[in-house]
Amino acid sequence: MNGMSFGEGTGYNSALPKKTRAERLKERSDKLNERASDLEKKDTSGMSENRKRRIELRAKNKRDKAARKANQSKNVAAGKKAKANESKNVTRRALNQEVATSKKKNENAVKTDVTRTRSKVNANKGVNEVKATVTKKKSGVGVNKTISKKVNKPKNEAPKKKELTFGQAFKQARSAGAKTFTWKGKSYHTRQKEENKNYVDKSKGVQGPQTQAAQKWEDSRKTPLKKKKKY
Question: Would you say residue 159 lies in a domain?
Fold first, then answer.
């Protein structure tokens, strides 16, 4: 191939117009915005809520990337580092979990702040619960060591008290010395089987149970009906 020539005006020295890096970054930004628009206009009728959520996140991430490319284009045109003062916000989804990551860079395009939030998300069931948030502060110079790290986890809610079984409610009321207790909206006494044999209810049931002897005595106090004499 020695001595082979492709002609004048080809290759790097071509007379064809060349695009600058800033222009290429701007074109990339425009294409990303177009893709995001297509996703946002997509017909999601008939899709599950989780599927809709994935499409929503894809469009959002492309919008964020397009904004970063536009900012890089401006920085390059101004003679700065492309990723100077960049802010990145991306949300990734895996199964029923989402990880939202936020990163910030300084004028030298070095990371200074990182925040990552992990959430349990199930759009079909309307669940969106933050599990943990990790915040890091970096030096922004040299090897960029982590200066501080903070992990926040929401306090677990107190577990709901389980409803007592009948036996547990009976034992609790009896231990407290109560004569009756309520379980599932109904009233029950605290007498055991052996004790219940010696108890009967009063006729009207107003004053509650009493012993058979007391009931017999009370019945004897009642005045019997007297028959009228015929004249």
Answer: no
- In sequence order, which residues have a C-beta less than 8 Å from that of residue 59 and are 6 or more positions away? 36, 39, 40
The answer to whether residues 206 and 144 belong to one domain is: no
Short-list 160, 156, 183, CA closest to 171:
183
Go through the chain and tell me how many residues it has: 231
Over residues 34-58, the pLDDT tens digits come to 999 999 999 989 998 889 989 999 9
Alpha carbons 70 and 66: distance in angstroms, whole number:
6
Whether the Cβ atoms of residue 119 and residue 128 lie closer than 8 Å to each other? yes
For 108-218, strand residue ranges (E) read 111-122, 127-138, 146-152, 180-183, 186-189, 199-201, 209-211
pTM: 0.60
Mean pLDDT over residues 185-194, rounded? 79
Q: CA triplet 21, 22, 28: central angle to 5 degrees?
A: 90
